[in-house]
Amino acid sequence: MMHLHAARAVTISLILANAAAPAGERPTASIGGSYRIDLPTVLQLAHARNLDVQIARERLAEAQANQEGAIWQALPWVSPGVNYRNHQGLIQDVAGNMIEAHKQSYALGPTSNLQLDIGDTLYKNLVARQLTKAARHALAAQTQDSVFTAVQDYFDLVRAHELTNIAREAVDISQRYQTETHTAVEAGIAFKGDELRVQVQNERDNLALLQAQQNERTAAVRLADVLYLDPRVNLIATNRDMAPLSVVRESQDLGSLIS
Length: 259
Hints:
Shape: elongated
Structural class: alpha+beta
Distance between the termini: 48 Å
Largest sheet: 3 strands, mixed
Order of helices and strands: HEEHHEEHHEH
Number of helices: 6
Helix content: 55-70%
């Protein structure tokens, strides 16, 4: 069952990714369970698969249903009704004599009820309307919060990937430097201590690369957890440029942003 849910999660992510990405830039799967994901796909998955957003949406539906119920309570209602009466034994007639009587009657038909409680009805309607308004704002806030968390984790993944590339480049440079130093030591134009210092630096760079790779994998798992995907799938960000995003125009008035 766990493998089935994981397969469904990956399938949904790939479908949404292919629908969101433009032609020629659609996410593709690579060897080793790695999948490329871009920012539009993250935004769609944050809306579609976030449980907190779905819970807030159901709370809004419940508040709307309660508001409709409060309105219907003020209207008359009609329901079917059945009446059945049965009497056996003594009964007193109009003259005061006690007689033996056995009788029964029944009636079947609609029943109309009208109960007017204007104050309570108006109060319940006002409460239900305010709760619906609060639920609608809670849904919008939860959606924005979930999207913000997903986007933040996505850019953390992009940043971790770039740091991994920097660490890998540092390892390449130190390895080339170590090779050159070893050649110079063999030629007698450099000291053995210089080669050992370069070797130590190369080991440090390898450790830094390993740590950067682990941080990148952690960022991928965190993003998969936010999007409710299988954490065993290695997500790879397709947006490799670290250009800053302009969320708010600098010329926009501060009062309009606060409102």
